[in-house]
Write a structure and sequence with these properties.
7-stranded mixed beta sheet; alpha/beta; two-stranded antiparallel ribbon; binds S-adenosylmethionine
């Protein structure tokens, strides 16, 4: 069988299993097995029997809705690579928008030597690592509550100079109170009641601590609004991701707190509400 026919059959298998991006995933896994970039598959030779066995095994796992990134062992986030697997939330492309906003703010908004940036709920360390990668002069701090996710972050942030801590964002970084330029957070935000609507890749493989946050999904965001107000310097910025249905309710948490100005919600390229930003009142 030619590689072209194998690719089509693999994509058909994944499509039938309900995978959202069957061609892409089939090719990524094939490239992984062959050790070549997905873009070079057209020039690749057919699989050896051993490679075919490995590819079939990966396709079977993907068809059972194991996340692609778990099978590859890595996720890309902006310009950085992150090791991921069971026990840590797989970073999502949509969060690159929040990270990009934080990078812009950190590049322009510091009052001191280098900007001080805190990433609460860091998971794999994705946002923290991307900020340090693109703003090397930033003094970046990150915290994660789940010991298993923290272990992945430790691996991903080794050698970056980022200050990573294990703990609850509710009382993290007392030592930085009033000094931080930018706080980022991609908190858990799915309402407990929405359990059944979550895709199997997330529901069965992302840690539940990373997904769910009370009846309306906003419990963690309320903690963030309090903690960010303590950490930021006057005029410092907070940015937080939320669900697309929370485009009004999430900013309302900050608007109601009375400590914030310039509270606004931001959309992704397809017009979906994605994250809020706000500035600590002086
Ligand atoms: C949606 S994931 C985001 C991970 C990462 N920031 C990203 O964007 O890929 C939320 C993370 O917050 C962590 N978390 C939940 N509650 C927390 C808390 N109170 N303090 C610190 N981390 C928390 C979870 O364990 C999970 O790793």
């Amino acid at each position: 069988m030619s590689l072209r026919i194998r690719r089509r059959a693999a994509a058909d298998l994944l499509r039938a299993a309900g995978v959202g991006s069957p061609e892409y995933d089939a090719d990524e896994l094939l490239g992984h097995v062959l050790g070549v970039d997905r873009g070079r598959l057209v020039w690749a030779d057919d699989l050896t029997p051993g490679q075919l066995q490995a590819y079939d095994a990966l396709l079977t796992r993907r068809a059972a809705r194991e996340p692609l990134q778990h099978l590859l062992g890595v996720a890309w986030f902006r310009h950085v690579e992150l090791a991921v697997g069971p026990g840590v939330f797989v970073p999502r492309p949509e969060t690159e928008l929040l990270a990009g906003w934080a990078i812009d703010r950190a590049s322009t908004g510091s009052t001191g030597d280098g900007p001080v940036v805190v990433d609460l709920c860091t998971g794999s360390g994705a946002i923290a690592k991307a900020v340090k990668d693109e703003v090397p002069e930033a003094d970046v701090h990150a915290v994660e509550l789940d010991p298993s996710a923290h272990a992945w972050a430790e691996r991903n942030l080794a050698g970056t100079g980022i200050d990573l801590r294990l703990g609850d964002m509710a009382d993290a970084f007392d030592d930085l109170a009033g000094t931080v330029d930018v706080v980022t957070c991609n908190p858990p935000y799915i309402p407990l009641t929405a359990w059944e609507t979550v895709a199997p890749e997330a529901r069965d493989h992302d840690p539940h601590l990373a997904l769910f946050s009370g009846d309306d999904g906003l419990d963690a965001l309320r903690v963030l609004a309090t903690r960010a107000a303590l950490l930021l310097r006057p005029g410092g910025w907070v940015g937080a991701e939320h669900a697309d249905l929370q485009g009004e309710s999430a900013p309302a948490v900050f608007a109601a707190a009375g400590r914030w100005r310039d509270v606004r919600d931001r959309e992704d390229l397809s017009g979906r509400a994605r994250y809020l930003t706000a500035r600590l009142a002086r």
